[in-house]
Amino acid sequence: MLNNSYKMLFLLFMMIGTMISISSISWISMWMGLEINLLSFIPLMMSSKNLFSSESSLKYFLIQALASSIFFFSILLIFLMMNLKSLNFSFINLIFLISILLKMGAAPFHFWLPSVMEGLKWMNNFLLMTWQKMAPLMIISLNLNYNFIIFCIINCVIFGSLGGLNQTSLRKLLAFSSINHLGWILSGMLFNEKIWMNYFYFYIFLNFSIILMFKIFNLYFINQVFLMKNLNLIMKLFLFINLLSLGGLPPFLGFFPKWMIIELMMKNNSFFILLIIMFFSLITLYFYLRLSYSMFLFNHKNVKWNTKNIFNLTMNYKLLFMISFFSLMNLLTMNFFYFFF
Amino acid sequence: MLIQLCRKVLTDQVNNVRALRTIHTTVVNKTFWEKEKKSGYAQKYPLTSKKMILDGLKEFKSELNLWKEEMKEKFESDPILVFRPGEIDVIWKFSEEQDLDKWVVTSDKDHNQGLSVASFERSPAGFGLFSGNLSSELPIDGRIKKAGYCNIKSMRQRKSFKRETSFDWSTYNTLVMRVRGDGRPYLINLSCEAYHDMTWNDIYHYILYTRGGPHWQVTKIPFSKFFYASKGRVQDKQVAFPVDRVTSVGFSVSGRAGYDGNFSLEVDYIGLEFDPHETEDFAYETYKVDKYIVQT
Fold first, then answer.
1. How confident is the model at residue A193 (pLDDT cuts 50, 70, 90)?
2. Contact check, Cβ <8 Å, A299/B240
3. Which residues form the NADH:quinone oxidoreductase/Mrp antiporter transmembrane domain (chain A) (predicted)?
4. What is the mean pLDDT of chain A?
5. CATH number, domain containing residue B192
6. Domain assignment of residue B231, given as a range
7. Which pLDDT does position B18 carry in this prediction?
8. Whether the predicted pLDDT of B120 surpasses 70
9. What 3-state class would DSSP assign to A169?
10. Number of folded domains that form chain B
11. Which residues of chain A make contact with B81, given a CB cutoff of 8 A?
């Protein structure tokens, strides 16, 4: 990344755009931040040498530009409504929310996300899944419409789980998992502002651990997981831990944000939504588990004379080691941390 | 007067240069925009719109059943997780008559651009036989400068309700064919119409060298070897073959440079394999020049 100075520039501007959106006091400056973010992210997406990334960036640009224009239109309607007091606010709120949900890739406006992610490399995918959602989520949290958000949560969770069932591409799988997690984040947003942010931070960490693993071993499709020269036993175990953590299985770290949201929703007596999102998160766990068990059971070959010492490994492997260890061990630690602070 | 003279000199120069240097005799398309997929060679629909609607309604029930099957498959079946070396997943096998219906035969005679004939039928041995006669004789009216080609191409895959789709070969990396040719080199065309209209004419080629004679040959070509061309023109900036949006497979044969005459290619099956020993991503390099060097 640091080899190319243009990448540093665009990354910086992408972050600046999000920061402008998050810390602004006016809707128009929020829109401005979103646009700066979009315009800086597109050159980052086009940086690879093949056709697919430019196709993905074109699709991304069209969708986001459409969403931005509808967002700006709804802002103007809000200003008009404030002056005239005769317009219907719930309709304006609906358009506002739809444009922002389209930006994020939340169901039922998610159809662009798997095909855009299919053309990008892992680091760009990571940015698309995590950083690009930050500003839109912040904007939604300032202007909620409970009925519509509940409809959106249920859709996210259903499409995110059922869409990932018959996928062979790891990128599309993670796209659907991202849609599913977005459902959980939005359900946390209904009750408490800090809870969804905590889930989001954990989600960034979990995503990072999975994507780092896929990037290091250059895995893009599920049949590449079985090649012997890519993965030894320890790395397979780490992938197993990280996948199950992303699926939200205790005793891994990924269970903790889901646990927080479950407790919050139980206290607020919203059992029906909770039942639906828990049920469909089980389906996402199924397709992570399918990837993991096939990795261990089918075509299993292990190089037994691997005598590498942990301390002599390269930085990438050390990072993987640390992250996976954190995912494995730190559920209770995080619990205590949040309890005391 | 002076301006007109300059203009004449310039256009003359351009025309002369064009006559000397171009290989293709069709006009170079200077824009990316293509008006239609078939680039002017489309045939008119045989029926009126009203008749087509009524015709379509008759197929509603069968299409609905097909849709139900697709939904069932989506929810019930799992994707294939393991691909072992040596396992070939057959895409087309020409053992029955209806398999041949999915392929279209074209030659330069179709639009009066030549005199070659071709057919794709069942051979006496029970396989698909692409055969005919190549003739590089030009039509008399002089519009066409070169002739003598025949092709077969598989028809576009369609889902229920005639929606167009493409093959997803992302989990494979080799194309395998069992063929019996007559010694000619044939051109394999993998057409990949992706999302945008710029890619409508993108075809990835490789050459199938055949041995004459009664023995079969199994040809394995990794996807990394296919080179990128559009409307017959090999592109400067080569990219790897997009494995997840393949629309059709085709074979071409040409009778130029004195190789007129009969040809025949017998195909048993066309399939795919995942070969874990194939580690090459892409076989062709594009020499990327540093930004401070002016490209000459």
1. confident
2. no
3. 25-284
4. 88
5. 2.60.120.430
6. 84-273
7. 46
8. yes
9. strand
10. 1
11. 222-223, 226, 290, 294, 298
B-chain residues near A166 (CB < 8 A): 73-75, 77-79
Q: What is the rounded average pLDDT for all residues in chain B?
A: 85
Q: Encode pLDDT of B232-265 as tens digits.
A: 888 888 888 888 889 999 999 998 778 899 999 9
Domain ranges of chain A: 5-340
Which residues in chain A are closer than 8 Å to B80, comparing Cβ atoms? 168, 223
Q: How far is CA A300 from the centre of its chain?
A: 31
Nearest CA in chain A to B274: A223
Put simply, the answer to whether A299 touches B194 (Cβ < 8 Å) is no
Chain B neighbors of A49, CB-CB under 8 A: 239, 286
Closest-approach residue (CA) in chain A for B70: A166
Looking at the domain assignment, is residue B240 inside a domain? yes
* Residue B150 covered by a domain: yes
Confidence of residue B35 (pLDDT cuts 50, 70, 90): confident
**Residue from the list A166, A227, A290 with its beta carbon closest to the beta carbon of B276:** A227
The shortest C-alpha distance from B134 to chain A (Å) reads 36
Nearest to B239 among A51, A118, A299 (CB): A51
Q: How confident is the model at residue B22 (pLDDT cuts 50, 70, 90)?
A: very low
Residue B12, pLDDT above cutoff 60: no
